[in-house]
Amino acid sequence: MKQYLFYMMLSLWLALPVAAQTKGKIEEKRGVVSGGYNFLLFTPDEYEADRHPLPLVIFLHGASLCGNNLDRVRRYGTLDAIEKGRIIPTFVMAPQNPGGAWSPKKLNDLLEWMEEHYEVDRSRVYVLGMSLGGYGTLDFAGTYPEKIAAAMALCGGCSLKEMQGLGRLPLWIMHGTADRAVSVEQSKRVVKALQDKGNDKLLRYDWVQGGSHGYLARVFYLQKTYDWLFSHSLDDKPRAVDRSFDIDRKDIQTTYQDLRKMDMYEKD
Question: Which CATH number fits the domain 2-13+24-257, given the four candidates 3.40.50.720, 3.40.50.1820, 3.90.1150.10, 3.30.2350.10?
Answer without folding.
Answer: 3.40.50.1820
